[in-house]
Design brief:
CATH topology of the largest domain: Alkaline Phosphatase, subunit A
Distance between the termini: 83 Å
Shape: elongated
Strand content: 5-15%
Bound molecules: zinc ion
CATH architecture of the largest domain: 3-Layer(aba) Sandwich
Number of strands: 12
Number of helices: 21
C-alpha cells in the first residue's frame, strides 16, 4: 500500500520529474550553448533551473485538484516522453511546422518513426510514472487546510521564481532570442505552444476561398506544330553536398554524370526545411520571404495558371500528397495503396513515376507539364527508399532508430537513396529523349524540396526553423535537362545556360522558369527569375511583349 502524500508535494515531484528527467534534451543543448566554465556561469545555469522548476511547479499547483491534476499527468507525461525521445534521437526541435508535418504526413511515413526505443520512452518514462502518480493516495484534510498549504507553497515558489529570474532576466531574454532552438526544446511548453499556433492558423483559413492569380495568362505562339513537354521533378530530402555532380567524393551520380548537356545548379536553395512548406512554396509564385502556407493556400498557383493558358497539367504522386498544390489538376496516385497503411511492403520505388510515362507522352494531345513527386530520400528509413541492387555503399543502416547504427552506416543508406534517385532521373531523361521521335520537344527540371541533416552537431532529419537551419537542410540539388529540339525551338543557348548555372538559384525560380519555357505570358511572370530568359537568343519578336 502506497503512503498518502500531500498534493503540494506530489505536484513538486511531478514538476521536478518533468524539468530534470524529461527535459534532458533541453539541458544538453543549454549546456552546449552556455558552456559554463566559471562560478558566474554555473550560478546562471542554477538560476535558470530554479526559474524553470518554480514556473512549472506554479502551473501544476494551479491545477492541483485531484481528478484534474491526475488527468493532466496521464496525458502530459507520455506525450512529453515521446517529444523527449524525438529530440534526443534526431536532435530536432518542435514548432508549429513540426505539428503540420505530423498531421499532414501519412501513417506509412509516420510508421517508420515508431521504434522500440520510442515505445520504451513512452512506457517507462511516461506511462509508468503517470500510473504511479495516480496510485498515490492524497492526504485527507479540510479544503481550508488544503488551500492554505497550497498557497504557502505557491508563495514560496513565486518568491524563488522572481528571486532567481530578476538578476539574470537580460541574459535569459537574449539567450532565448539568439537561440530559438532552446525554447523550442523546452518540453512540454514547445509542443503545447506549437499545437496552439498550428490550430490558430488552421482555424483562420477554414473558410478557404482560392483567389484567382495570373488571370491574363495566355500562350505565345510556339510555331511548327510540334508539341512541348516540361517535366518538373519534385525531389525529397536530397542534400546538395551529397550529389557527386556538386563535388561529393562518392559516386552518387553514376548515371547523370554521363548525360550530355545536363545543367547542374551547384548553388540552389530551398524555400523551406520541410515538405509542407517547400512544395506549396515552389509552385506558389511567392518568393521565400513572402511565402506562408496561409497565403499560398488561398491563391491559385503555377499549375492553375498553366491550365488556364491551355497547357495540359498532370501530377504524378509517389509520396504523402501534394500539400494542396495539385487540388485543381489531374492527379495520379502511384503510392501502391489508396489508403495509407503501416505496411512498407506496399511502398513503391520512384521508378514507378517513370513507368508508363512513354505511353502517356505518346498520347499527348497538346503541350503539357507533368509533375513527378518523388519519395526520394525520405528518412529515417532510408534503406526502404531504394531497391537492393542500388545498395552501392555498405553496410547500410537498416534501423530507423539511428542510435542503433554507426553514423557511417546511416550516411551509406542515405547515399544509396541518392544513387537510386540518380538512376530514376537518368531513366526519365532517356524517356524524354525518345519523345523527340513522337514529335515532342521535352525538358525537365529536378529540384529537391529540402535537404537533410546527417548527424552534424547531433542533428538528424530536417525541419529546423529556416532562420537557424543548417546549410545541409536548405542547400539542395537542382538539375535541368533540355532536349536539343526544345532548346532549338526556344532559342536557348546551351553555353549561356551552363555559364549561368553557377549563380545562386532555387525554389524561387521554378514558377517563372516553367511559365517561360512553356511560352506562357502573364503579368505575374518575372523574367529575372526565369532560368532560361537570359539565355534565349530568339527574342524579342516571340518573347518581347509579355504584357497582355
Ligand atoms: Zn520533404
Amino acid at each position: 500500500m502506497l503512503k498518502s502524500r500531500r498534493p503540494e508535494i506530489l505536484a513538486l515531484i511531478a514538476a521536478l520529474y518533468i524539468v530534470l528527467i524529461l527535459n534532458q534534451p533541453f539541458w544538453r543543448k543549454f549546456y552546449e550553448i552556455v558552456a559554463p566554465h566559471n562560478l558566474r556561469d554555473w550560478l546562471f545555469a542554477g538560476a535558470v533551473a530554479v526559474v524553470v522548476i518554480s514556473f512549472s511547479y506554479l502551473l501544476l499547483l494551479a491545477v492541483s485538484l485531484k481528478p484534474l491534476l491526475r488527468a493532466i499527468i496521464i496525458v502530459v507525461l507520455p506525450l512529453t516522453a515521446a517529444a523527449s525521445y524525438f529530440m534526443t534521437e534526431y536532435g530536432i526541435v518542435i514548432d508549429a511546422n513540426t505539428v503540420r508535418n505530423v498531421i499532414e504526413t501519412d501513417t506509412r511515413e509516420t510508421g517508420d518513426l515508431i521504434t522500440w526505443k520510442l515505445l520504451g520512452y513512452v512506457v517507462f518514462l511516461g506511462v509508468a510514472p503517470a500510473i504511479l502518480f495516480c496510485l498515490v493516495p492524497w492526504t485527507e484534510r479540510s479544503w481550508r487546510d488544503d488551500a492554505r498549504a497550497k498557497l504557502k507553497y505557491a508563495a514560496f515558489s513565486a518568491a524563488a521564481f522572481f528571486a532567481a529570474l530578476l538578476p539574470v532576466l537580460g541574459s535569459v531574454l537574449s539567450l532565448g532570442r539568439e537561440h530559438k532552438e532552446l525554447t523550442l526544446t523546452l518540453t512540454p511548453l514547445n509542443y503545447a505552444s506549437a499545437v496552439t499556433t498550428y490550430w490558430r492558423r488552421e482555424s483562420r483559413k477554414r473558410v478557404k476561398v482560392v483567389q484567382p492569380f495570373g488571370e491574363d495568362a495566355h500562350r505565345l505562339a510556339t510555331g511548327d506544330g510540334r508539341k512541348s513537354l516540361f517535366v518538373i521533378v519534385v525531389g525529397e530530402t536530397a542534400r546538395a553536398d551529397h550529389f557527386a555532380l556538386n563535388g561529393y567524393a562518392r559516386p552518387t551520380n553514376p548515371e547523370l554524370s554521363k548525360v550530355p548537356d545536363l545543367i547542374n545548379y551547384a548553388h540552389a536553395y530551398s524555400c523551406g526545411t520541410d515538405t509542407a512548406q517547400s512544395v506549396p512554396c515552389m509552385f506558389s509564385g511567392f518568393d521565400r520571404k513572402a511565402f506562408s502556407n496561409g497565403r499560398a493556400e488561398t491563391r491559385q498557383n503555377l499549375l492553375d495558371i498553366l491550365k488556364r493558358a491551355g497547357v495540359d497539367v498532370l501530377w504524378r504522386e509517389n509520396q504523402a500528397g501534394c500539400k494542396g498544390v495539385c487540388e485543381r489538376v489531374e492527379t495520379e496516385t502511384l503510392t501502391g495503396h489508396k489508403v495509407p497503411t503501416f505496411f512498407p511492403s506496399t511502398e513503391n520505388g520512384d521508378d514507378i513515376l517513370v513507368d508508363g510515362l512513354d505511353d502517356r507522352i505518346a498520347t499527348l494531345k497538346t503541350d503539357a507539364v507533368i509533375v513527378l513527386h518523388m519519395m526520394g530520400s525520405h528518412g529515417p528509413a532510408y534503406w526502404k527508399r531504394y531497391p537492393p541492387q542500388y545498395e552501392t555503399f555498405a553496410p547500410a543502416c537498416k534501423d530507423a532508430q539511428f542510435s542503433r547504427c554507426e553514423l557511417p552506416a546511416i550516411v551509406n543508406a542515405y547515399d544509396n537513396t541518392l544513387v537510386y534517385t540518380d538512376h530514376v532521373l537518368a531513366r526519365l531523361i532517356g524517356v524524354l529523349s525518345n519523345a523527340a521521335s513522337e514529335g515532342i520537344d521535352a525538358g525537365m527540371l529536378y529540384v529537391s524540396d529540402h535537404g537533410e541533416s546527417l548527424g552534424e552537431h547531433g542533428l538528424y532529419l530536417h525541419g529546423m526553423p529556416y532562420a537557424i537551419a543548417p546549410e545541409s537542410q536548405i542547400h539542395v540539388p537542382m538539375v535541368v535537362w533540355l532536349s536539343p529540339a526544345l532548346r532549338e525551338a526556344r532559342g536557348i543557348d546551351e553555353a549561356c545556360m551552363a555559364k549561368s548555372a553557377s549563380e545562386r538559384v532555387g525554389h524561387d525560380n521554378l514558377f517563372h522558369s516553367a511559365l517561360g519555357i512553356m511560352n506562357v505570358a502573364t503579368r505575374v511572370y518575372d523574367p529575372k527569375l526565369d532560368l532560361f530568359a537570359a539565355c534565349k537568343t530568339k527574342s524579342p519578336k516571340t518573347y518581347g511583349s509579355l504584357a497582355p
